[in-house]
Amino acid sequence: MQGxxxxxxxxxxxxxxxxVILFILIKVMTSAGFALDHAWFAFFFRWLHVLSGVMWIGxxxxxxxxxxxxxxxxxxxxxxxxxxVIAPAALWWFRWGAMATIATGLIVAAMxxxxxxxxxxxxxxxxxxxxxxxxxxxxxxxxxNVWFVIWPNQRKALGMVKVSDAEKAAAARTxxxxxxxxxxxxxxxxxxxxxxxxxxx
Length: 201
What we know:
This protein has 7 helices and no strands. By secondary structure, the chain is mainly alpha-helical.
């Protein structure tokens, strides 16, 4: 067991294997049939959507609740470890978590037949705005911020792209403000997503 937990890749693989075992046990204990049908794939992509979203929003909150507030407390000689090692790795998972969340969310919406209604906020057929549509648009805005504002500015702030010191400071400020914007939007976005599934509206 220690060997599995000492290596992240082994831990993740073991987590997926445990998930498959639990899935099989639940199916056996409930005598539920198993078919790779539309309902199963809709469930599977929703599970991937939730996994991706946990990665994305978890890292968003790590940056905003842990890293950014504590950077002033880190001695200057130790800051390069954050900027050159930890932040680039976290940003890689952050932006690809965002991409996977959006992609799987759109797949789930398409598979369940509400993608057009959600993206048009239910207004094309004269209906009321749906919470899932509002949540999807908040998520799309957040995804756009990650890929087209936060990441390009973080590349400058972290020295991945050579710019002047003034441009580096401005880029760091822009990245921080848009990261805070996404933190702000994450609360109503998650509320809408949960409300759509659990009758909160």
